[in-house]
Amino acid sequence: MKKTQVAIIGAGPAGLAAAIEVARAGGEVTLLDENHKPGGQLFKQIHKFFGSREHRAGTRGFRIGEKLLEDTEKLGVKVLLDSPVYSIFKDFVIGYISDGREKAIQAERIILATGASENALAFPGCTLPGVMGAGAAQTMINVHRVLPGKKIIMVGSGNVGLIVSYQLLQAGADVIALIEAAAEIGGYGVHASKIRRAGVPIYTSYTIQEVIGKNSVEGAVIVGLDEKWKPIKGTEKLIEADTVCIAVGLSPLAELAWLAGCEFAFVPSLGGHVPKHDRNMETTIKGLYAAGDLTGIEEASSAMEEGRLAGIACAESLGLYSKEEARDLKEKVWARLNTLRTGPFGKKRRDAKDKLIEMMEGGADIG
Amino acid sequence: MAKGIKKTGVPSWEELKSSPGLPDADRLEEGPVAFIECVQEIPCNPCETVCPFGAIEVGSPITNLPKLYGEKCTGCGLCVAACPGLAIFKVHKNYTNTTSLVEFPFEYHPLPKTGETVRCVNREGKFVVEGKVVKIRNSKQFDATALVTVEVPKKYFLEVRSIERKR
Amino acid sequence: MRVKHHPILGEDKRKENVTIVVDGKKIKAIEGEPIAAALMAAGIRVFRKTPKKNQPRGVFCAIGRCTDCVMTVNGIPNVRTCVTLVEDGMVIETQKGLGKWRESR
User: What does pTM read for this prediction?
Assistant: First the structure.
């Protein structure tokens, strides 16, 4: 059987950052990804990132992706593409498919960076072609350069809904309406302001009642909600549209962590069931680390920092760094992570993350 | 009707006036100056790091709202291109006796042309007045965030914040 | 439709250089793009019909997770079109229900 020192599953921002850290420490890394290309969802992020200089703020996401790929290549990280991992067996044997065949690779350490997938929303007509995830539309316009439609309704005002609305405009579509069931806009005001200046109306306290169409979306009925989130009769509006994008959050892709036997915690503010982990991003299984959206939905900048943490800790456990070296490196990453998790938007995530880590330190069976 | 950035996506005048990023009335009279419409504490400080004159301070934590030191601001506009939120503008109130200049970030295709008459819009995307494009800056450093400057009647310099997107 | 010009990404210089056959109709596509992208560019939205109620389905997640966009490709049913790249001469069919394996295979 093939062997590797560190196997990293998922070549998105967290996995790439983790790979770079392990390789930089002198570790031997195999990075597995199910896609044809590495980068995960970074290459559809065409906006400039927030943060500070050390987070590469002001740089567009796909350029950060290009840099990560360049670094992984320079450091000699082995990347297995088109290789979906289907399970993790005893003794860290990883089962994956390549060229239509089952293959296996055994690792001394594993870092899971499997990311997240978009949530769906149930309403009459939600299965009609033309109803799609906002991230799906973003992939189509920014990666494949194809518009899913011309007149678009966006459902959800978190940063994904706001940013994808803006990017749909940039790709040449019209966003007819953005609707949000809550009374207030969920994402950053500056993202909302951008699409308002471009003439996109934002309906807060509105939800989608149904989508109409024979073979694909032809329109949607939206309806106002009262303080108890009950539809208000008479507020229905029929809006003509050919596409309805759903941006109602993401859920961690945690299947492999489940299969590996990780203990989980249910943390709604992090997107649902997430594997418990400590400050080293190590799960309840010794030698198995997790990073990025899998451990709680945030954004690419924090996913990369978590990947770095996991990579450094993993290298430390292999003796590639001394305790002191690792401590200094990890402290720097934690400082950057905490910076991203401040302010009214970040604090909630920081609190949830702190609690998750406490759970582990409280009564966990570490080692 | 409810107002404010959380409700409408448009910062209200109250929110703008109570944020530290706006130049004071005297500074507005003196020449081109940055006009920072950042009213929420998000972790972000490229405006501070890009300013060569130390005219913008975010400090620590980086969720602080950016503070503009009007006396240090030369109106170079680098922050307008650097702001990932596209929330900084440059205004030159007394460009002529009757007109002002407003510079704003613009990331749509196609760009307008210098000299072109364009339909200027406010923060809600509503048509305000026709204006003339007097300058377009699109340097490599800005990474595809073009800066468009329009000349508009003076009374609209606090209102005009973009132009209609062409389709 | 294709996004030819883009303010951030610039002009898309790729050419439609392969031909695929969708339900018997020839369609131009770009080598290396997923089937779903080529179909979307051609304005095709219905990718399959459900087994019981014969309802239309199309692209939902576009990253290979939800399997809503599966079609019959070169006689093989249930192929995720959002992560399967087009090849010249590929034969693609709207999938009815769970699909059928082509007899000859």
Answer: 0.97
In chain B, the residue whose alpha carbon lies closest to the alpha carbon of C6 is B109
Compute the distance between CA of residue B66 and CA of residue B75 in angstroms, rounded to an integer: 16
- CB neighbours of A101 closer than 8 A, spacing ≥ 6? none
Name every chain B residue with its beta carbon within 8 A of the beta carbon of C7. Answer: 107-109, 111, 144, 146
Q: Read off the tokens for A226.
A: 């009262």
* Side-chain half-sphere exposure of A8, counting CA atoms within 13 A: 34
Sequence-ordered alpha helix ranges (H) in chain C:
35-41
CA C14 to chain CA centroid, Å, is: 18
CA distance A64 to A53: 12
Helices A13-24 and A300-317: angle between axes, nearest 10 degrees: 30
Locate B82 and state its tokens: 């650097």
Beta carbons of C57 and A129 less than 8 Å apart: yes
Cβ atoms < 10 Å from Cβ of B159: 15
Q: Which of C12, C48, C63 to mutate to test the interface with A (most CBs of A within 10 A)?
A: C63
Cα dihedral sign for A60, A66, A70, A75? positive
Q: What is the pLDDT along chain A (367 residues), one digit of tens a residue?
A: 999 999 999 999 999 999 999 999 999 999 999 999 999 999 999 999 999 999 999 999 999 999 999 999 999 999 999 999 999 999 999 999 999 999 999 999 999 999 999 999 999 999 999 999 999 999 999 999 999 999 999 999 999 999 999 999 999 999 999 999 999 999 999 999 999 999 999 999 999 999 999 999 999 999 999 999 999 999 999 999 999 999 999 999 999 999 999 999 999 999 999 999 999 999 999 999 999 999 999 999 999 999 999 999 999 999 999 999 999 999 999 999 999 999 999 999 999 999 999 998 765 443 3
Contacts of range A53-59, beta carbons closer than 8 Å, 24 or more positions apart? A53/B45, A53/B46, A53/B49, A54/A336, A55/A301, A55/A305, A55/A336, A55/A339, A55/A340, A56/A301, A57/B44, A57/B45, A57/B46, A57/B84, A58/B46, A58/B50, A58/B82, A58/B84, A59/B143
Considering only CA atoms, which of A294, A270, A289 is closest in space to residue A279?
A: A289
Spatial distance between the Cα atoms of A72 and A54, rounded to a whole number of angstroms: 19
Nearest alpha carbon to residue B100 among B146, B1, B31 = B31
| Cβ(A210)–Cβ(A221) below 8 Å | yes
Residue to test with chain C: of B107, B108, B109, most C Cβ within 10 A: B109
Q: Give the whole-angstrom CA distance, residue B124 versus residue A1.
A: 62
DSSP reduced 3-state for A241: coil
CB–CB contact A170 B10 (8 Å):
no
Number of residues that this document lists for chain C = 105
Query: What tokens were used for B150?
Result: 């329009």
Q: What 3-state DSSP class applies to A356?
A: helix
Joined together, the tokens standing for residue A98 give 């390549």
Question: What token pair was written down for A179?
Answer: 């609707």
